[in-house]
């Protein structure tokens, strides 16, 4: 039970979420070529996804997949039938390097014969018939109940509109034998004292702690 949850923000209004998404898009545009948004770090933290090795999944969903995706580290280890990638900014991410032009990108395009550095685009081009893209929000996923066998949600929940709705949706579309890979930066009481600037951070409107997440998971089981 949480005694004092003044450090927790579970929901924000649409206007506040829109500001965070504007920030997120600018961040991606400025860093897409140089930064992997901690995907490699999470890969190591999840023990290189060794839990998933050689497993067979029909439907694999990454929510809030971002421009780089975490799924790129997982796909080489598993067998799958279909991949679903969801992010409200997906149309910007997938076209980013098509419109951007600088000498480094041109060099890479020449070297690899195609745009190797936009992983999302590469994945979509290579596996077109096996990949489905959606710009829906996690609060309102366009998938059927129990449709997904594996869901990846990394570095997303502190960016959303409504944390509880997102958790409900994740569990609605995940089937009973499915696996949820959830990676999340957390906030706690100490952050309010030692890191108050994190509470005016435009890019991360939602603040949840471990007890909040555990409570949501316990309700499900
Ligand atoms: C920090 S990025 C992380 C991207 C990716 N998961 C990664 O680890 O590289 C957060 C992503 O969450 C997405 N996002 C924000 N609000 C969302 C929502 N309500 N539903 C789904 N995704 C959302 C943003 O568009 C952004 O791409």
Description:
This protein has nine helices and five strands. It has 221 residues and is an alpha/beta fold. The chain has a single domain (14-220), classed as Vaccinia Virus protein VP39 (Rossmann fold, 3-Layer(aba) Sandwich), CATH 3.40.50.150. The radius of gyration is 18 Å and the shape is globular. The mean pLDDT is 86. S-adenosylmethionine is lined by residues 21, 24, 37, 39, 63-66, 68, 70, 87-89, 137-139, 154-156, 159-161.
What would the keywords be for this entry?
221 residues, alpha/beta, Rossmann fold, five-stranded parallel beta sheet, 5 strands, 38% helix, globular, binds S-adenosylmethionine
Provide a concise account of the structure shown:
With 221 residues, the protein is an alpha/beta fold. Helices cover 38% and strands 17% of the residues.
